[in-house]
Every structure is written in structure tokens, then in C-alpha cells.
């Protein structure tokens, strides 16, 4: 995985979510908005609701929605465009 590679899985099984510990992860909520972000650590998150387009600097936009399990690599700078109010659970891997 490079600094610009976003890995995601659409609708992972409840068993997988349980095994990786998603139910115990903190939650984060954000209203419709656009902002810049740089990941200082690798983050894995599971979208509980909403829709977002994430565009890595110099990369292609990717859109994610409820049920997506996403890994953002450490060092990636990007623009988040929240299209529908978002709620996610997240954890840092590093």
C-alpha cells in the first residue's frame, strides 16, 4: 500500500467486523462539508451512515457509503467531501 492507495471492502460480513473489533471502536460524526486531511497514522474505519467522496492529492476521487470498511494509509493527504451526514467507527493501525 502506498501513501495514495485507499483499500476498501463493501459490506464485509458481521463476523469479520466482530473479529477485527469494530463494535468497540470509537465513533465520529460530521455534517455535510468539505475539508483537507492528512493521515499521520493508518486508519481503518467502518461507515455506519452517510456518503463521502475522498480525493487523494494527485489521485482519483473515490466515493464511499454506509457499509464500507475503508483503510486510509499513513502519510496520505486528501480532500474529504461529505455528501450526506456521516457517522463512522474508526481505529488506528499504527
Q: What topology emerges from the helices and strands here?
A:
Layout: E1 7-10, H1 14-20, E2 27-30, E3 33-38, E4 43-56, E5 62-65, E6 68-72, E7 77-92
Antiparallel strand pairs: 1-6, 2-7, 3-7, 4-5, 4-6, 4-7
Average pLDDT metric: 95
| Radius of gyration over all CA atoms, rounded | 12 Å
Say which CATH homologous superfamily is assigned: Jelly Rolls
Low-confidence stretches: none
The CATH C-level class name: Mainly Beta
Provide an overview of this structure.
With 94 residues, the chain is mostly beta strands. It has a single domain, classed as Sandwich (Jelly Rolls). The protein has one helix and seven strands. Strands 1, 2, 3, 4, 5, 6 and 7 form a seven-stranded antiparallel β-sheet that branches. A hairpin with a 5-residue loop joins strand 4 and strand 5.
Name the descriptors.
94 residues; mainly beta; Jelly Rolls; seven-stranded antiparallel β-sheet; 7% helix; globular
In short:
This protein has 1 helix and 7 strands, in the order E-H-E-E-E-E-E-E. By secondary structure, the chain is mostly beta strands.
Amino acid at each position: 500500500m502506498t501513501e495514495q492507495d485507499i483499500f476498501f471492502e463493501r459490506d464485509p460480513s458481521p463476523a469479520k467486523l466482530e473479529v477485527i473489533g469494530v463494535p468497540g471502536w470509537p465513533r465520529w460524526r460530521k455534517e455535510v462539508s468539505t475539508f483537507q486531511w492528512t493521515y499521520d497514522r493508518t486508519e481503518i474505519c467502518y461507515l455506519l451512515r452517510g456518503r463521502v467522496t475522498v480525493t487523494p492529492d494527485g489521485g482519483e476521487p473515490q466515493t464511499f457509503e454506509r457499509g464500507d470498511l475503508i483503510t486510509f494509509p499513513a502519510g496520505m493527504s486528501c480532500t474529504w467531501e461529505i455528501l450526506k451526514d456521516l457517522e463512522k467507527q474508526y481505529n488506528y493501525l499504527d
